[in-house]
Amino acid sequence: MKLDAFILNKHIFTPNYFVAPLAIPDHSTFLPGVWSAPDAVPQVDVDAAYPWWKNPRIADITQVADPTAPIPLTEGGSGVDEGYGADPCLKEGRLGVYLHWCLPKRFRAGKDKTQDRSQSAEPDVKVSLIVFCLAFGANILTSSQDHASVPDRWIVMRFIHEAKPLEEDAPKAPALSAFIVESNRIRHLSKTQIADVEIEAAPFIDHSMPVEKQDEVFIGIKRVFDDDWRDPEPDAQYHTPLKVLDSTNPLFADFTHHNANVFSMHDDLTWMCEGECAREDQCTAVWHAESAKVSYAVFGYFSTGRQRTIVHGSLFDVMWTRNKKPAKITAEAVSRDIGKEQPIAVGRDTLEALEQYLGCLPVKFDWPALLGQMRAAISHTGQGNGGFIDMSAPDSDTRAGFRPVDGGLCWRFHDNDEAKASKPDIGTTQGSHVPSETEMQTMYTLDRRQAYSDALDRQERYLRHVLFCEWWKRRSRIPGGLWNLPACQEDSDTRLRTALAKLEKVKELRKLYSNGNRLSSIPGLQQTPRKPFYSRTMPAIVVGALGSAWPSEFADEKDVPGRDLRALPFRGTDGSGVVQEWLKSLVKPEMGTREAEICTIHGMRLFFGSAASRASIRPELQNSPALQRLPELFDKLDNMGALHWTAPGWVRNAVNTLMQEWVYAMNGQPVGKLPSPPRYSSPEEINWQGTQPWRALFVEWEVEYWHLPKRFWSLERSADGRNAEYRIAGDVNISSFEGLHLHKRTISGRSLLRQDATLPIVTLLSQLLHKVTKEQVLAQASLKKAAEKSGGTGSNDDDKSELGAIEAQLRSALQALQLSVCGLEDLCDHMLTLQRGLHILPHEAHESILTAGTSPFTTPEEQRLQTVLLESNDGLDTTPYGEATFAEPEAERDFRPVTHGQARFTRFNVVDKFGQVVSPMLTPSVSRNKHTSLFPCVAPSIACQPNDAEGASYANSVSLDEAGASQYFQLSHRINQDARLNTYFAINSADWRGYHKTAQWYQGDRTDTGAMAHDWRPATEYEDPVWGWLVINFRSRGIQLYDAVGESMGQALLPNSIYSKVYWEVYYEDGDSTSKSDEASCHNPQLLAMMRKMEDPKFLFGLWAMLADASQNISAGAPGNDQLSTLVGRPMALVNIGLALELATPAMRTQSYADMRKNPEIHLDEYKFEVLLGHKSNLCDGLVGYWPSSSTASTSPGDVNHPVDVKRPDASTIYTEFGYPGRKMVDHGNIKPDPFTSPSHSPVYISPFHVDPSEHPNDPPAYTRQICNHPSAVILGAIIDPFQPVHIATGILPPTTLKLNSWAVTRTLERLRLVFRGGPLLAAGDLVGLDPDQDTSVPQDPSKPREAHVPSIAEGGAGGGDWTWLQPLIQSSSQPQSEQTTTDVVTAGSGEPTTPVFVPYNVKGEPAAEYPLPLGPHTVLEGFYKFGLRDMDLDGRLVPGKTT
Q1: Terminal-to-terminal C-alpha distance of the chain
Q2: CA–CA separation, 466 vs 832, rounded Å?
Q3: 478-496 per-position pLDDT tens digit
């Protein structure tokens, strides 16, 4: 366990940094009315920190100071009180050493509450030596884990090497003094006397006391641990077991202001006379040390229970001086360097801030170049996109700047290993199970119920939060406040009644739809996480060289086990050998007497207790104060009755053993080389070294935020087309606008410093390097050189690979920077008019309040509110503004549903565990009215853009800073509550016949009236959502159209001009696309509409240009055949894409009374956010074009099909970046718009929405239908490349992609038949078996297949398929129609004599040597080439149709 000691005297108060007054939690804020406050932990007050006589921590500010006493403004000090007057103000009892012990890791970690508690018992004595700091979350009162209890008894041993008394006739200070700290001792001010409550106890929560008495509750007591130790209060109250979270204060374990006599102790360096005194008054006097050299040992144990664990730590050579500051004050050096030598970097997340910090370091080592070498090394391996920390990587880093939130569960099939081994792989589906129609229906039913249940859970938490806000606002009312306004009262009462009614309904529904009330009877059907919601993280701040409040080992992933007491080096025969070697090194070489040998064998006590043994010590060691006082130490230890008679026996044995180890280390012996050494053994860890420690713990910050209007912003796409971000429009000069002060507000907060700033890079480094081979990385020799230049130290393990050595060097160099990170998480809460902190929660009203009639809850609804909130702690982590406001009176509303503005720091105070404060903006030598500005290193994603109007060197910010510098960082659009962008391939249940059979299992929901209610729904990974295919035929200059299963629907031939008529060569059954029978044969209205659009020559020309351009620009996602690609373009899929911006809870509303008096602003559901789909610059994006729905629906709103029809995409205008969109088309002298237009002409917008599950009681299908069919949801028709994903970006949520399942694409393409017109061709002879009067329905003889000797289009089996020649033949009308339809010959359905049939022949390509053909007679052939994959299903048919 790590110990730290802080020296407090009046000389440590210098003009270079702050020693802040004590900031004790104020539990009086738990009281209602004017006392109520959202955070019981006050801000650190640096304004009252300097000079020392104005600081209540060390001075009695009620006393009058000497105004003539000079104030030193420079460092130094002569060791006397020169320049320090006003001694009457000095609080003598506050001076001394403040000792803090850092709790080990095991006492901060939590475990699941369902874990067997019997497993936590430790029957054997263990010595824990691990240090860890737990950065608690804000919701500290509702932890789902059971945290470990902590030791509640701490024995503190103080060894004084030497001391100079302050009094002239003072007796000699005792060598060893012992204190006992009872960490769990409850103390009430009304029952016990505490001399100095601020440093002798810590505020605590006693649940047995009423709220109005909580400000009198404290915990912790320190007493002298001697023979006379007795408990003065036999009926003392103890909090058992004691846990870190029991205080409900996240700083409780580590901030010494909050844990006095719990995990820290004040030692005033006083003593009383022991033994005989020269005068009688000396026996009762308390003596003080003017200076002293002190060492400490701390031993912690459990007073109750079975845990036999000793936690111990050591600290040596603490130099106490009353009239002189320590030789080195680390905080002064940190204060000098922060913000100057050590930049402060701000980024959208830790990784980005870290990269920005490394780029801003002084040029001692070029970290950006190292990152570039890392990118090159990874790129050289051919893995990924070569981006070491590439934020635009589609699959790994797209969530940068976003925090995922639980999105609930869904039901999917998961196969076991045996099932997977026996089933074929179907690509990217969930597992390898191919569900049947019944299984799909069961899965869909369970999935709907699960979504409904999850929505009810979220709704209940939200309603409890709303009710808690109303509870808090009523409890914190002040006389004459804004709550007296009728509008505020009416709004508050309405919210209360509505939330209570909805909560009751939700609770009843939750009983019916709990997660465990419906299990699947189908094997393999299991729950899996649904797509999460996201919230935008607030900026992260990285600062270097701050050090840590805890040793670096606290971040170790592995828990180092404690030492076994029986294996300690100073216990048993092994210990005697170590002692003997040490004692022999102390004695003179000539002192080899038998007496000395006996003493060394029998141990330390006998050696130092023997005068003869002490006389044998070498002369150069005789004057060592530590050695001289060891006899007294062991004598005191042997006669410490409290240890031997009061403490448990196993504690006595452990302390005696560890004290020998402590003495051994105190005399400079290398304890780290002992067998089973302590965790902290190096001199830097256990020696004070004349240095006042600095242990950075948290940051208190304040920012000025300006909310910039929506019109200032535009959504800009990233260079690679994968992502997008809102930026200030180029023609906007923000500083030129007046009235910006109306958009300003001041926000403050507190953020814990974490020491894992380098963790993102270290983790990525480890993952990426271990994915590549050694030879590939070492091929980049510059990477290895960069690692060597970084200053890191490699591993000494000879067996470690060279790759591992590079990683170890880079890891060491990053850790040497001592980087700390914190975030501005509270910023989002303030945007929602909420505050986070240590606050009171709903509780049972105490009898005194009820009888006094002062309860703020008088109406039936308010009394019911109390009861409801006591049922659960969900939603109670933030408090509403209520009467508070942080904006100017004439300013706009505090509430902001969406953040989009700029901010700058006005305060940035780094506070350590002892209350020392450093700031890059303020020091004691600078007046508080003259704060220096902070110019952080801002990452590009949140940096202000150049100001085009003022010059590129100026930032486009609220106010103009100097050229090349800016105080501001930019917060682009971010929704201030959890949301997710649902992107999916949509399926229309009304058109179920037009989809692949995998998607035909759902045909809509049956309503109460018996009608079928159709809707749009997301396709699952087990379905094929494609409803058509388009293929360019370069040979015939046509576009072939196929249905969802790959059956040909015809080929539209490109006419000579846009004024000519479009002809079709091959049709689906019945031929003419304009006939009524077409609608009956085509089951998908969208496919039919596409065919009709293709009859328009203008549309067909634009479609040809778009498809041809896309085929050339989009990277091939699958291997193809070059010869085949010269004939046809890439198959393009026709799909529907759904977009929905779903909120996890209803849109938040203002919780500020002040906002009620101001003009209403736009609501969250009224925002419209642009969606960017695909981009031509991204060669790996599969979007070719898209079209939105029509503005008018063919059905009335009351029709059950209205939700489907109103969102059905209309292909009248296709938005694309391929081809030549936006051309002016002249038709008979009239200019008509091109049906193909750039997406920038009509962007896609979506609005956030939330579907309240309680509005669909006991109807999960209606709830899920509403999500996909909500008026704010968008359905788009689209043409996509089936092998590439479609990238979708909004700038407000992580970018996402949509890609067809590979199994669906492969299966459909295997059925595709590509037909090319062939001829006229000159053949050597007639086709075999071609007789118009012969029945062509007779099957062929497999041993004698029909062959056509025609030229081959492609050599071999192009594309892995077979070529067939289709020869048209006019069939006799006398042959029955039923006999004409076979697997080899396909006829028309009319039966007319002129209707041809196609006779298939295998293509036997003629070699070039056979041309020119021999003398005739020759045959002229004209027909079609047909291409199909070899393993395709042969049940498809090609049917000729009429030409138009």
Answers
A1: 91
A2: 12
A3: 888 888 889 899 999 999 9
